[in-house]
Amino acid sequence: MSIRFDESNRLFQLDTLNTSYVMGVQDRFGYLLHYYYGKKLGQRDVSYLARTNEPPYTPDRNEREKLAFLSSAPFEYPTGGVGDFREHCLEIRTQSGFNALELGYQGFRIYPGKKKLEGLPASFGTEAECDSLEITLEDSLLDLQVVLQYSVFRDLDVITRSVRVCNRGGKEKVIYLTKVLSACLDMDNADYSMLTLHGSWARERRMQYRLLGYGRQGTFSERGESSHQEHPFLALTSPNVSQTTGDVYAMHFVYSGNFQAQAELDSYDQVRTVMGINPYHFSWKLEAGESFQSPEVVLVYSDAGLGNMTRTFHRFYRRHLIRSPWRDRKRPILINNWEGTYFDFNTDKLLDIAASAAKLGVEMLVMDDGWFGNRFDDNRALGDWYVNEEKLPGGLERLVREVNKLGMKFGIWLEPEMISPDSDLYRAHPDWAIQIPGRKPGLARNQLVLDLTRPEVVEYVWGRIRAILDSANIEYVKWDMNRQLSDVGSAFLEADTQGELYHRYVLAVYELQERLCSTYPNLLLENCSGGGARFDPGMLYYSPQIWCSDDTDAIERLSIQEGTALIYPLSTMGAHVSVCPNHTVGRVTPFETRGHVALAGTFGYELDITKLSEEEQREVTNQVALYHRFQDLIRSGDYYRLASYRENHQYDCWEVASEDGREALVTFVQVMGRPNNFHSRRIKLMGLCPEAEYLVEESQQIYGGDALMYAGLPVEDLWGDFRSKLIYLRRVDR
Ligand code: DGJ
After folding, report:
1. 531 CB less than 6 Å from ligand 1?
2. Model confidence pLDDT, tens digit, residues 372-398
């Protein structure tokens, strides 16, 4: 068992392969306090970690300074209103208007394996892989029960946390939850910096470090989705952090809506890090007997730097979050017509593209936006999910049949959550859009969002999805979402449940994707949100790949993919080769470089292949061959970040090594040419066996694994900017 309860000290210790997490029950008030998270401890008595005898921690002596205790003790799940003035995790409003809450320990349950979280995406594991702990806390006045849920993944250094809150119907028949965060981590500060991911459309998930300052700081979304701008990830890193050194405490939220990820440095130089649903416009009505389940937070601690954290997340998500059967399969190389044609296509055009692509080895045609209703541009028709026969005579059935005849699979784009004011759907059901009665809702891309809290709207959307998927042999869906939520109001919800809309919306998206995955288990689903605005672990539960960004420029992609791969496996990153000048930044990069960068993701094309030159077409054939050669390694290997253009302003370099260290593929992208480059660069590789020898295919040179890792592989500069090369090496046994 990876979870121990020490009866004499009422101490819980959660152990993974290399980490321990310790908490305990404080005697006098029965508070659950957090003692330790970090490098693994032995099975000794560590109750001294409680430090409850140190001022101002004096609750066992008297109650005189109870507030000093409450506002400084390390709480496992802090609540508001009774004297802890730092950020708290749970807030309520009673019918009488009070908000105070005080949780005392009641009991616990330990069991092997992990239970599903009702209605929510969450990690999974067998009894052989993980154990779970539920600790019950209670506010006795309100008869409100809080169950802290932990799962410990023994071999992966991962602990997951979530919370269930139950109104047992004591004094208050109805309790409004106004804030339910999923996890809290109280620690002493050690000059930590906070690592978060930020961006915008076409600039998603760029890494940012900032030294923790006093007060509250963090990253938040109030946009109804995890968003381009912020990301539900936060890590505290020690001052010496690098890819291979330093402490990293990381939290990642398995959720696709509004979130709060925050660190607070207090006056005692303690840090409280919290993560959960953003309390902004959140309120959840709990009638007697009802409970609320929070989404899950994934906790990773690494004492060996960021790279170790990255590989832990990668393994964890590959094994314990992505449930699609496509997770471990080579994905078909696709060609998507979006950047190739935008809205200007018909069956003939698509078949032309498909025919040329098939000849070069591309395996699937994806028809993007513009195939339905009156959708000749992005101003109209969302919601009218009926084939536009003017563009596609003979409908999907004919198009897909012809594509299949070319030996290709067929995929389709959908944006099921949206409604255009100029659509038959809106004309029939204006009240199906999210909006506040009497207030004109703001448009984004000329569209509104469907009110998915209404059951009939969910049924309409599901009915249309089914009709489309059942009408032809569709093997892939790109599920898009192109605007954020504003004017949040529902004609369906009561006044005291309007605050449920944001979360109910996300739950409805999950419900729809759950139906999609269970009804079409072999469908390859790719989530997308105006590029990568909903690239989050919640979506990963349903789709094994997510479109990273609408920015397909190879150089912009370096930082986008670096930030994304910080947490997400390469097999999840939607990445395509597109034409130059690039449609987002106008940059011209070699076709080869675009291919090398896209190979670090799911790989595909996003262009009109019929317009490529002969030389470019030959390059496509080469890239297809590279994909087939290296895809298994890229999908299943360990990822190492060797150098970052973000830091050195000259070149980017990453490596994927097989878990057994037998082979590795290094991608080197020289962003800017280097003058007077009389020496090659020595790039230190990782993940090899030091005692083994490796043949570098390109140079046919043999090197020792130790030399490659400790001294480095000589990588010569390339002529010009934006150039790249792949370096493959494999172990030679002599
Ligand atoms: C945004 C997506 O990210 C693009 O790839 C494309 O599908 C457009 N939407 C279509 O409207």
Report:
1. yes
2. 999 999 999 999 999 999 999 999 999
